[in-house]
Design brief:
Largest sheet: 5 strands, mixed
CATH topology of the largest domain: Glutaredoxin
Order of helices and strands: EEHHHHHEEHEHHHHHEEH
Number of strands: 7
Strand content: 5-15%
Oligomer: single chain
Number of domains: 2
Helix content: 40-55%
Length: 345
């Protein structure tokens, strides 16, 4: 019997910093408030802020990624702390224990036979004793629904706490990457929220994130400006040519229509396919062919690839929302939370 049930746990390695005590004779060394002296050279202090500044000049990409990981971990831990404290406050108000409160307030739909069967059907090949594994699967689904209900309840408590007479205020700030927007960058939508997408027309994950981004733009219509940044990865045979073709379509005012057509036909990106897509959109065929075959945008796309690699763009797709990085195929809920926070700011 083989049972394949995957539990995904968030794990993180905290960054541990060791601070050295400075003897009284060196207390006169000038320090920034809250800063830490990490070394002394010929009687002069090197502070932690000095190391940070030096890191920005040497490897800003790595520094940003580390800061992002640290922020994600701290945000996760803060969320757990807030949940525990708000549950305790709510339980005290109701004169209940936290366990009694959750028992009364948490509501979720019961696990159905269809849901259990769906999990069984997803298991890889091999002999599975359905009679043995079914109770374990049902319990797993039951526990997951309880956790989801608990998360929803805590989210409601946080929203309530933010409107209380002594409102909950979160000061934890995410790292941000300033991304300059060129006049040649394709954009659509208007708003105070700048959503910059680094993407590749041949990347399968970039294709998967497109429906999510479309939902985001529809949900926040009039509030978000979507900016496209070319990041054609060298490992993809046709990505650079496809990016150039999209710019040729941009010359005729149809970048986004061509963009949608490329992602809808990701297995058809040869030069001939690209010209056929242009025909589908009724672009000027001669002008498009001259643009593509003549390599009009070859230099610009190559420069865009170099620029993207210099930013903190570890992979495609990577999206920056007002400078806040979202990597990979993130769910609509994450985009909604970040944009809502940015609109609140």
């Amino acid at each position: 019997m083989r049972l394949f049930i995957v539990f995904v746990l968030l794990s993180a390695s905290p960054v541990i910093a060791a601070a050295q005590h400075i003897p009284p004779a060196q207390d006169a060394v000038k320090r920034l408030p809250g800063d830490t002296i990490v070394a002394m050279v010929d009687g002069e202090a090197i502070q932690l802020s000095d190391v940070e500044a030096y890191s920005r000049t040497k490897d800003p990409k790595k520094l940003f990624q580390l800061n992002q990981q640290l922020f994600d971990f701290r945000e996760s831990m803060l969320g757990l702390m807030l949940g525990e404290r708000l549950l305790k406050l709510e339980a005290d108000t109701a004169k209940l224990t936290v366990e009694e409160l959750l028992e009364q307030r948490l509501k979720h739909e019961p696990v159905t036979d269809e849901e259990v069967q769906e999990v069984i059907n997803r298991q890889p090949g091999g002999a599975i004793d359905v009679g043995v594994v079914t109770p374990f699967i049902r319990q797993y689904l039951e526990d997951r629904k309880k956790e989801q209900a608990r998360a929803r309840y805590i989210a409601d408590l946080i929203a309530k706490a933010k409107k209380a007479p002594k409102p909950l205020v979160i000061h934890l700030q995410p790292p941000r990457q300033a991304i300059p927007i060129a006049s040649s960058d394709p954009t659509k939508g208007m708003g105070t929220i700048e959503l910059v997408e680094f993407s590749d027309f041949q990347c399968p994950f970039c294709q998967k994130v497109q429906p999510v981004l479309q939902e985001v733009l529809a949900k926040f219509d009039g509030k978000v400006k979507h900016v496209w940044k070319d990041y054609p990865l060298p490992v993809h045979q046709f990505s650079l040519t496809a990016a150039a073709a999209a710019r040729c379509a941009q010359d005729q005012g149809k970048f986004w229509q061509y963009h949608d057509l490329l992602f809808a036909n990701q297995q058809a990106l040869t030069p001939e396919d690209l010209k056929e897509h242009a025909s589908t959109l009724r672009l000027d065929a001669r002008a498009f062919k001259t643009c593509l075959d003549g390599g009009k945008y070859r230099h610009q796309i190559s420069a865009a690839l170099k620029t993207a690699s210099e930013y903190t763009v570890p992979a495609t797709p990577t999206v920056f929302i007002n400078g806040r990085m979202v990597m990979g195929v993130a769910p609509l809920e994450l985009y909604t939370r970040i944009i809502t926070e940015e609109l609140g700011n």
